[in-house]
């Protein structure tokens, strides 16, 4: 069964004259890790708002077409039930932090309290998640006094604490340093192994190439490309649609232009190294 299915979906924010989503058709399968990429203003966050049900519950505007989440029409979902199925890490961690809790512990525990989890389980879960996200030393701090990067980790922690089957994650590493970014991606990889369906908006294309199963590219409110990460990210035509391809793929194409064709276009550095080594081996073999 499709996890989320969109048929002829268009959406306009209130008072806006333009469509933020324009006739979007796509079937997202359960257990897959989707990277959502594309130009600024292309509609990525709007797609996340829709998948999470914030459109039309919170953002009114004009929505047409059919949106099915786990087989059920979006408008038929009870908002509380939907939020127990789909976790949403917002683009801006300052929006995500509730502002009403006095410690990081309480902030992360809040969602679980609302779900009726026992006190012992909550303590256990919060401690485990804080260790995972390397924020144990922040546990007693006030969430409103954290740096952007610390808030981003806490916001992420409070969503994974909810243990939802579907996660929508909008630029989770925008405030993080390279190590912090790597840490978050390793956790996302672990969540994927647990069978969760993940939607990730991210501009860091090399990370999308390394971690995602599938990629959709958005431009002007439309999904202009969609398919396996390999198929999409090796396609140079992406550059004509406001998206970039990974450095490894650029290298593969440039070598090809110079007559040095690899077996396939690599999308990660690791693959590029393997394919170039293989090519050098073939060359060396031909000469003897
Ligand atoms: N709350 C809003 N009200 C009115 N228009 C909006 C609102 N949010 C976004 N838009 C418009 O909808 C379109 C899609 O915006 P969206 O934020 O979904 O793009 P995006 O691909 O996530 O961009 P970015 O990469 O900059 O985050 C843009 O034209 C934007 O101006």
Automatic annotation (TrEMBL):
Segments forming domain ABC transporter = 4-245
Q: Which UniProt keywords apply?
A: ATP-binding, Cell membrane, Membrane, Nucleotide-binding, Translocase, Transport
The protein's location, in the record's own words, is: Cell membrane
Q: How does it sit in the membrane?
A: Peripheral membrane protein
- The superkingdom of the source organism is Bacteria
Decide whether keyword S-adenosyl-L-methionine is in the record: no
Give the InterPro entries listed for this entry. Answer: AAA+_ATPase (IPR003593), ABC_transporter-like_ATP-bd (IPR003439), ABC_transporter-like_CS (IPR017871), ABC_transpr_CbiO/EcfA_su (IPR015856), ECF_ABC_transporter_ATP-bd (IPR050095), P-loop_NTPase (IPR027417)
Which Pfam families does this one have? ABC_tran (PF00005)
Kindly indicate whether the keyword Nucleus belongs to this entry.
no
Q: Which GO terms describe its molecular function?
A: ATP binding
Family that this chain belongs to: Belongs to the ABC transporter superfamily.
Q: What is this protein called?
A: ABC transporter ATP-binding protein
